[in-house]
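INFO batch 0412 | record 1 of 1 | parsing
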Amino acid sequence: MKNRTEVTQFILLGLTNDPGLQVPLFIIFALIYLITLIGNLGMITLILLDSRLHTPMYFFLSNLSLVDLCYSTAVTPKVMAGFILGDKVISYNACAAQMFFFVAFATVESYLLASMAYDRYAAVCKPLHYTTSMTTSVCARLAIGSYVCGFLNASIHTGDTFSLSFCESHLVHHFFCDVLAVMVLSCSDRRVSELLLIYVVSFNVFFALLVILISYIFIFITILKMRSSAGYRKALSTCASHLTAVSIFYGTVIFMYLQPSSSHSMDTDKVASVFYSMVIPMLNPLVYSLRNKEVKMALVKFAWRQNIL
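INFO prediction complete | emitting tokens
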């Protein structure tokens, strides 16, 4: 316990120390965060205000937008403060809190993606039973289960990481308190912690991916049996958008976490983390929703009401 309390704060080394890049990076990240705020809050607002979007698919999309906004907010403001103010110090407790909320909401997103895949399976493969299979209570249980799994997972990783001893090194080679970046600073034996990280992340990733894979196998089988070219194109378009986002999200997770820390390059992880923590939350409203005709119609209707058009 004595060694553990010696480190009371950490220093986030950030993306780069080049003074000439601080302002340009601040501007880029500020624009990304602004688009993230507008896109996700706008999506939540549209879904709440337009009764035509009160369906299971848009219920999950609104939750996805909320989660994207939350885990981007857990990281991006602190990164921007580091660029413009040079404030790279983060307290022990603040670091633990940042790690907890980032891991929690990222895990929730993982399970929401699986829930959305199941929703698409029910809509495409069993359209006649869709309203009875995807009831309000079923959707609520899937969403609540996603949040429970997310916060449980965050509790495991944050508790395990900060139960390690931190003796002298307090320089985090990252722009936020990522699990791996903090764990490597420990002066105690972290082999068990690394294994726990790999096993728990593997379970969460592969369980969600299994649900998605099985759902889409049945979806593709159903699509191939369709005789209507319009129905075929519509179903395929829905699958393509979702699968693109799933590939980006899970590809980054697998790349970052499902390998031992000895084989990690922190610089490579930083680039992957920018995409994972900032770019994906910005893109999700576009990938999932703004290409959707119903959302476009709701947006036009909202703009007309506000006398924008």
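INFO post-check: The first helix runs from residue 19 to 49.
INFO record closed
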